[in-house]
Amino acid sequence: MRRIPRLRRPSGLPSTTTNVSRTTIQIQCRHPSCQRQRPTVTTFSTTFSPPSLNRLYSSDRQQTPASSSAPAQEQIQELQPRVADEIISAETGESLDWADEGLTAAREGPYGAPPQRVEAARENDVADPSYLPATTAEGLRKVGGLADWWYRPDNWDVTGDFISFRPREKVVDPVLIEAAVRRAVVEALALREVGSDDELVAVWPMAMSKSDLLGLLNWDVKGTEDGRVTLGGDPSAVAEGLRWKDEDTSAGSDDLAETLTSEEVSALAETWHPSWKTISLTDPRIRFAVTKRVFQLTGQLVPDHQLPSTTTVQALLRVLKKPPKSATLNEEIQKRHPDLLELPNVTVAAKRVTRGDKEKALGRFKIMQEEFKKRDIPGLGHGYARKGKEVRRLKGGT
Amino acid sequence: METRQVLRPLGSLKHTTPSSAVTPVFRSVASRRHQSTTSRTKKALKLPPHPDFLTPQSGQNHVIFNPPAAAPSVYHTPFKFLPKSDPRRQANLSQLLRSSSDLHTSSRSTELPPPMSKLEMRERKYNVTKEQVEEMRQLRAADPATWSVLKLAEKFNCRPYFVMICCKASPEHKEMENKRLEDIKSRWGTIRTKAREERQKRKELLLRGAL
Amino acid sequence: MKRIRIGQLSRQWLATTPARSPTTTTATTTASRVSILLLLSRPAPAPTALHAQIRCQSTTTAITPEAIFDEPESKESKEPPEESASSHQANSPLPSPHPDKALRSAKLASLHARLSLSSKIPLPTLARALVDPSADAHPYFNNANLAYVGASRLQYHTSEWLVTRYPRLPMDIIFAAMKSFAGEPALHRVARSWGVEAAGAPGEEVDPGYLQFAKDKPSVMMHKWGYARAEAKELVKYKWRRGMSSRVVFDDPFGNTIPPKKTNEVEVSDARNTKELLMEDAEKNAHANFVRAVIGAIYLHCGSDTTKTFVKSHILSRQLDLSNLFEFDLPERELTRLCDRENFDPPVARLLSETGRLSRTPVYVVGIYSGRDKLSEAAGANLLVAKRAAAINALKAWYLYSPGHVGLPSDTFAEDAAPWKPAYVDIGEIIS
Amino acid sequence: MTVRALERISVGQNGLGAFILQCKKMDIHYCDQSGSSRGMNAFIKSQLSKFASLHPQIEFAVSPRPRKHPVLIGHYINGKQKSICVKNMDSLQVLKKAELLRDASGEKTKRVNKPITSINESVRGVWSPYHGKGMPV
């Protein structure tokens, strides 16, 4: 089963309920993509200071370093706090303790700032008399530079990554979808049983150990004809599970428990009472809660134009289980109409049949290539010939 | 051709039945529209069918053999050319006997058309003996100018064609004759020479059956 | 047909490889039989993406590999002819598409269906029929053998049909009629009417559905049954006259002389192709060879009666006005000799009707009568022309006599055929 | 004096002896993205396999032609082409156009005035003024 990252709360989403205080976000990133090794970052000064402006002038104007650098210095000082505030206000985290990296340097927000500019000593400040500044570039070694600083991934911290509400990959396996739908229905109805209706529209944490999940799925959910639903377990425990908790759940134990293999689920599916599919979802709050939960768990979004028609779980399943529409007709033919490919007198091409293909099939292509070679015209493409005037004029060329 | 004549009387009997068909009414020429398109010509040519094609009152249908007057096709082999073993010859024999018998009685009712020219009917005389042929050759060889072909034919009372078959003039004479002809032809103008060339072409075309 | 003495013939038919290698061949009986083995025992193809193609086929003949490799490496067949025993990597591109590419070519499948060929004829055979010897000199992969078999069947059916349908045709006219039905120009049109397109140049990447031939390379002219005359060279140099009866014996069914053969090799063989004469019109020859190869393939796979119906429906159903083929020299004399020979009354030209005798455009209708029977009639601008035309018509009427739909000798091949009724055989044309 | 022969070539008529369908290839171009090609895509998915199996003698080349309207191009034995743009048509209309291309021959559509077009000589013979009994005036 795909690993559903146990995110406490999608960072980007402003939480709808007012009472949730902006507690500090414990980011346990289980996301495989962010398990990168952290290169040992050399210690550098944490204060972000914009590139100092005093060395902008060419060397011959150095005689007035003091005056020019002083105003520049205030500028920098005054610049520095404002910039820092902006960045910090975007992020609520204070210095984060990287438990496992042991990186001593605290980071300002989600990125590592480039190091402070180090200036070489001036010619006359150098104590060694034999020092002679180089006049040409040969022999000098290129050191440092901030060329690709912002493109190196290790300067960016995962905290900056956007944690989305839906999982990164869509769950396509129909069995898993069915399990997710069942879990969503059970949770929604449990909340309805417990009576905390406003919870229905809240964001529910996904964290649930495998055993609880299996237990939840095993509930004997039955939908009777008159619409009443009997849940097989006690709803309060589930409702409790759906509230955001503050305790710091250890990262290790959960990440394995999450994966539900489709075999297990399909084994479970037989035990389910078929009538659970007749549970009606006509109540909009329930339907919204279920579809929201399913979208959070599997990434499958019920298209808006189909929402009104999903009155029962069966309809919902039918909408969700439909395989994704194939992008190209060629793909569709290979999947759904292989008989067209077996016909001896039919050729189906995946790409456009160009003039070159036709000439190749006719055997004339190699002759044309020879003729081009004789007249030293490039065999393929335009070679030296510029694009046609009309094309350039269309594209606004002079 | 033979078979067509024999069947002709059958066809002509049909015409005697009173043709009750309405003769097509001809509108005055002025009001008639131009037959400039196919549909107009078709409408104008839409005549009532000939009575032959209407089924007679007696109801039983009949064969109409009324071919247009056309050049006989070379693929219709004349009766005389049919080989003995040909089935058509046996089938036709009985009719031939019947028609030939009444021929004698009706004193050659179908008179043969006149010969194309008197030459056709000439009798071959075969009156020239070998010695005369030898003599003719000597005369011709001795003095082709005076003893021309016509003179020799007159002398031996035979056709000039026969004289040309028997004796050949000496090369010099032929040479001189050709030169004379060349002189005549050189005097021809463009029109006459072109006409003669055309005539030569037509002869070749005729031989190829393409005329 | 080819100048092949009977002795040499059997060896040629038996030999599956170039005759010069003195090999004993055990299993195969006819040269065309090779193509069956060729197809049945073709190993699974190397994936086409693989640049190096292995085109080998196993034949049960005990051909000693050395015999193959001692053969001089002819320029055309860049890759040495492989045998199953020694399939090795041929890095140069193949001269013609790999036989197994035929199974995937839609153009070939549609051509196969268009000719409504029976399913017994596999697609690779049709693909092979499309490869001219000038494109691929290797005898196992070009249509020379098939075309040879097809040519003999085609000419047999055409000549038989002509002679029984028009027994009195002069020999020259029969030659011309044979050429107009089964000759190169006619077969070129037949192939084009089947929708066969010519490929720009032969090669491995060409779609097997195209007809592949090379204009600059020598190909194989279908030398039909015939012998090269001893005086062949002089005939060409001094333009000696060839008697008509000598043509019947020596020349090919279309009356053309067989050019003097350069070497005594077998007609259709790999080495032979290098010295073959260059076609004056390679395209027509390639199209014609394709049609013959299809007929050969049908004969090979479906038997003779299917071949006969195929030839009848595709070739003999074409229309030809035989009366246009005649060119007379002295028709009046020939007609009198005819009547004399058949002891009819001597022909007399009679004037049937005339019009405009004094006008600028007179018309005379002259009929020729032998005794009381009218032989023919014709119209002309003057009396002599009319008489000559009438004589020509009379002669045509004589020559073009046809006993109608009489049975063909090949009908008796069928099991339930009726006993053979002798067809009418004419005494012959008037030779003066 | 013997007869000499002239060179002639026999003339074949399609349908006499053997019928060859004139349409030999049909190019079917569609586009995945464009809306006008929706009908053509449906035709390819639903009708084409039946149509192609009914006519094995026609070669079908299905290939995408992005950013262009869907088109059916018929290639004929006389080398000519006929193309029909089937934009915004549903699959049955496209099928009808395909049948139209199948039945067409390469020739341009021409009005046929005479019911019979034949190269045979007429069996009864063509009237000529010089033969027969002459016209009774």
UniProtKB/TrEMBL annotation, chain A:
Pfam families: Ribosomal_L50 (PF10501). Keywords: Mitochondrion, Ribonucleoprotein, Ribosomal protein. InterPro entries: Ribosomal_m50 (IPR018305). Residues 13-27, 55-78 have a biased composition (Polar residues). Residues 39-52 have a biased composition (Low complexity). Residues 1-79 are annotated as: Disordered. It is found in: Mitochondrion. One of its GO terms (cellular component) is mitochondrion. Belongs to the mitochondrion-specific ribosomal protein mL50 family. This is Large ribosomal subunit protein mL50. It comes from Xylaria flabelliformis.
TrEMBL record, chain B:
Residues 29-50, 98-119 are annotated as: Disordered. It comes from the Eukaryota. Residues 98-110 have a biased composition (Low complexity). Pfam families: MRP-L20 (PF12824). One of its GO terms (cellular component) is mitochondrial large ribosomal subunit. Residues 30-45 have a biased composition (Basic residues). One of its GO terms (molecular function) is structural constituent of ribosome. This is Uncharacterized protein.
From TrEMBL, chain C:
Residues 71-101 are annotated as: Disordered. GO terms for biological process: RNA processing. Residues 108-303 form the RNase III domain. Its main location: mitochondrion. Keywords: Mitochondrion, Ribonucleoprotein, Ribosomal protein, RNA-binding. Residues 72-81 have a biased composition (Basic and acidic residues). Belongs to the ribonuclease III family. Mitochondrion-specific ribosomal protein mL44 subfamily. This is Large ribosomal subunit protein mL44. It comes from Xylaria flabelliformis.
TrEMBL record, chain D:
It is found in: Mitochondrion. The keyword Ribonucleoprotein applies. GO terms for molecular function: structural constituent of ribosome. GO terms for biological process: mitochondrial translation. It comes from the Eukaryota. Belongs to the mitochondrion-specific ribosomal protein mL43 family. This is Large ribosomal subunit protein mL43.
